Fold this sequence. Notes:
Number of helices of chain A: 9
Number of strands of chain B: 2
Oligomer: heterodimer
Number of helices of chain B: 4
Strand order of the largest sheet of chain B: 1-2
Number of domains of chain A: 3
CATH architecture of the largest domain in chain A: Orthogonal Bundle
Largest sheet of chain A: 5 strands, antiparallel
Distance between the termini of chain B: 28 Å
Number of strands of chain A: 8
Strand content of chain B: under 5%
Shape of chain B: elongated
Structural class of chain B: mainly alpha
Shape of chain A: elongated
Radius of gyration of chain B: 15 Å
CATH superfamily of the largest domain in chain A: Transferase(Phosphotransferase) domain 1
CATH topology of the largest domain in chain A: Transferase(Phosphotransferase), domain 1
Amino acid sequence: MGLSDSVLRHLREVVDLPDLGDTRYELQEEIGRGGLGVVYAARDRQLDRRVALKVMDAAWAGEARLIARLEHPGIVPVYETGTLPDGRVFYAMKLVAGARADRYVAGNPPLGERLRVVQRVGEALAYAHSCGVPHRDLKPQNVMVGRFGEVYVMDWGVEGVAGTPAFRAPETPLDERSDVYALGALVRFMLPADAPPALSAIAAKAMSNGREDRYPDVDAVLREVERFQDGLAVEAYVESTWQRVRRFARRNEVLLWLLAAYAGVRFFLFFVRSF
Amino acid sequence: MNNKIVVGLTFGAALGALDGATAWFYPEVRSVIASIMVGSTIKGMLVGLLSGWFARKVNSLKWGIVAGSVLGLAFAFAVAAMPSETGHHYLEIMTPGFVVGAIIGFLTQKMGTPGTVKRSA
């Protein structure tokens, strides 16, 4: 008698489930599946708290050590690493309550909030690069926006990772400059349909096919985004005179209103005096 | 040194002088325009000094403009109330003084390095 597909699927899932018997963790549910492994929600029996547990092939054991080296508010802290009886490795990390960036954007947050997420992601990337660690697989699915607005970059790639087509730079191997490409793709993804052209130009420049045509590093992308937010011209976008005037007026709106008020008062006084 | 008090003094002096220079459009006071400009410059500098000091204490565009306006109005009133051969010109002095004060208050909030800052909504 043959087994039905659903039974086979169930059996495969059960076999895949990590045996956490010798650990302090109790498996709860699967919460994500990526190229390098599966992420489960688990309970830490000793500390009675929920954690995220990533289980992966032993070949990727370097990832946990890699992430554990990175201490930054934008990078999920690793609590512990270990090996399962079947040889697979796992690491326990903070379980972030919130939404992945792709789901977060679906909620249509304001532009300023979207850019804040990009800034936080960029800061985490820049820090990792300063430690010599590129991400290699940055995409919205690897960015979590927490319940309190905190932003975490997850699933740091290890050498040999394939990346995700829409966010992957064309070159091989992937490095820090490839992360600039992926950050540009993330900026483009995070923008609303009616995004200002200057922001789209920043994304396009970061996503140039030629490595030398991109921004030299993540900090340069962040500086451009900051310049946009401050109402300044960005390097990636050549404005028309009219756009420059409008940007100036927007940036100095209050001052222009005050000067107009002064001119109005003077005109009024002159007008009153004539009668 | 580019602190907020220096910014206030500089812009207060410049805007005060320009405001005083508009007296040229009033023929009856054109003969004393030099003293009007000096007085207006000093008034602007006092408003700038106090607005700059306020901006070092309170980091708020809204309250900076309010403080500058009130200071501008108060000093303009003091000038307008002074005895004058041409009579008192409360409206002509106080109304622009109020707006110039607002501009100085705005500029001291936007420019210059802050001192000890107390954030406010």
